[in-house]
Amino acid sequence: MAPMAQQAPSTHPVAFLARRAAMALAAAAVLGGAAAPAAYAADGADSAPAGSAKKLPEGLYGTKDPQYDGVWRQSLALLAQHTVGVRPAASAVRWLVGQQCADGAFTAFRAEPGKPCDARTMRDTNQTAAAVQALTALGGHDETARKAVNWLKSVQNDDGGWSSMAGSPSDANSTSVVIGALAAAGTKPESVTSKKGGKTPYDGLLTFRLGCDVKEGERGAFTFQLKGAAANADATAAAATGALGKGFVVAPAGGAADTPVKPLSCKDGKADGKADGTSDGGRAGAAEGGAGYLVAQLDKNGHHLPSAMPGQEKQPDVGNTADAVVALAAGGHRSAARQPLKWLEKNASAWARQNGPAAYAQLVLAAHATGTDPRSFGGTDLVTALNATGPEPAGTTPGKDARAADTAGDSDGGVNVWWVIGVGLAVGAGIGFLLSGRRKKNDL
């Protein structure tokens, strides 16, 4: 599911977001080109070589080093469980709450939560926004969520958007995940304005949209950042959902609702139709144009999105494909989401097993958004698999079904889980979650 503009891959700063950290570490191991941190060993799990393993904190999901994605994967796991009626273990919720800094922010992982955060603590808007969505859905953590939202507001950029790291240029992915958090917490994103310029999150998000002044195949897409702007499928999936005011959890459309996708149409160099000038400031049209771009990319590549990692362009990107399914579902494009969903059912199980809780959660949320049973997803029970990555759940919520409409406690939306690159560099530099710069692809 996925959080910054970039220049060419060879010159981008290491920056990426917490979400794909676990996936990135796995990819690094496969490619053999990056030094990943030592794995943590969970009770009952296979241990790392003697002297190199550390015990996982109680309540944490996954068995890999949480340095880069602890809060991210925990938040997605808790949120996905809640969405399908599973009540997470109290220890899992306590771990997430305990990761918050006194100022309301979250970082990827605090090994010593009892030690106060200081100026060196790498606070991250994506981790914080993910935690807000999870804790708001679970309920009973109003003060924790309120402090987190206030911190997010305090680091809003003048253009109305956010970067993963406060003070850096805004990007489409980070802005989208914060929009989802604001909506989940009951704050209208359009009411949150920058101190200088009075720009809203939607103002910031729409600046990343590519219009009629780019080549036809990129129209309607979003770029990750303005610098080195290029169509980016990952950013487009995030923004198409965020523009609709939705977060990670998207309620499945009921009845026979099925909105045809209408790609951005240009006439005399200007957008033709509802793409601009609507009562919502063009948000619906921007989401529609983004959906059109995603469908074109999915159709072009056999119903999935390709990897943007250098040298892996012919490999599928399962995570971004799942994000695209959520984005299409958010726009009511049920038919358009059908084929990529079927592709996921056939091809995503091995990927999820390799990448753990965040990957399983992402697939659960894609299934939920399309009204598909996550307990029978291409022959895999995603819910059972997700539960097995963490502490034993406390129980289930009677009458709650993954295919039912959202309850009041659910956050609405589905933002990207984005890829991560430069893992070895990030680790070597002591950067927590590829986050100190979070490198992002900008070539899809």
Taken together, the total number of domains comes to 1
Q: Provide a count of the helices.
A: 15
Assigned CATH architecture? Alpha/alpha barrel
Q: How big is the Rg?
A: 20 Å
| Shape, per Cα inertia axes | globular
The helix-strand sequence is HEEHEHHHHHHEEHHHHHHEH
Average pLDDT figure: 81
Please tally the β strands and state the result: 6
Q: How would a crystallographer describe the biggest sheet?
A: 2 strands, parallel
Strand content: under 5%
Which structural class do the helices and strands define? mainly alpha
In CATH, the topology is named Glycosyltransferase
- Unreliable sequence segments: 2-52, 402-444
Q: In which range does the helix fraction lie?
A: 25-40%
Strand order, main sheet: write it out.
Answer: 1-2
